[in-house]
Amino acid sequence: MSALSALPFLKPVHLRPPRRSPGGQRRHTLPASEFRCLSPEDAVSVFEIEREAFISVSGDCPLHLDEIRHFLNLCPELSLGWFEEGRLVAFIIGSLWDQERLSQAALTLHKPQGSAVHIHVLAVHRTVRQQGKGSILMWRYLQHLRCLPSARRALLMCEHFLVPFYQKCGFEALGPCEVTVGDLAFVEMQHPVRGHAFMRRNSGC
């Protein structure tokens, strides 16, 4: 059994029945909606969404194309993409971190022995924003992390105006983040991943 098929929260979600041809036979179509880990082949689509989402706001991207490929090669299991009709519409990319708080090195490193998942970026395609997809994807991602034995908590850093969004997703603020990018300052936030044994026992993880 592959690692992907063992994770119930990543199995495709079919939102409508398969189409049938006029003769009554089923026609092969892409799933209406699917969640899966990303691969290096998805890197360009990821970067196009990220670039549009972030450059207009902050002038830079959390991850550049080579960094996206870097993390999707090292730890694809810590990513999650939402696809509709085969097209990527939203994604999260993470890596493992081995310290209590984030530091500047966390922006580029993956620490395989770490127990904290550093969420580098969450982005939604501009055509499907304001539909609640960001919070749905984050919920799915946190469920996915509960199936990974190494993950104990999720960490992220965000600008102040995004704190209420992540609080609604269950994150708590830890205070100012040590990491800076240019003139930007961030709040560091965390979400426990362990401590949900009952949920894991009943989720098939």
From TrEMBL:
Its EC number is 2.3.1.87. It is found in: Cytoplasm. InterPro entries: Acyl_CoA_acyltransferase, GNAT_dom, SNAT-like. Coiled coil: none annotated. GO terms for biological process: circadian rhythm; melatonin biosynthetic process; response to light stimulus. SUPFAM superfamilies: Acyl-CoA N-acyltransferases (Nat). It holds the Pfam family Acetyltransf_1. One of its GO terms (cellular component) is cytoplasm. CDD domains: NAT_SF. Residues 33-194 form the N-acetyltransferase domain. It catalyses: a 2-arylethylamine + acetyl-CoA = an N-acetyl-2-arylethylamine + CoA + H(+). Pathway: Aromatic compound metabolism; melatonin biosynthesis; melatonin from serotonin: step 1/2. One of its GO terms (molecular function) is aralkylamine N-acetyltransferase activity. Belongs to the acetyltransferase family. AANAT subfamily. This is Serotonin N-acetyltransferase. It comes from Promerops cafer.
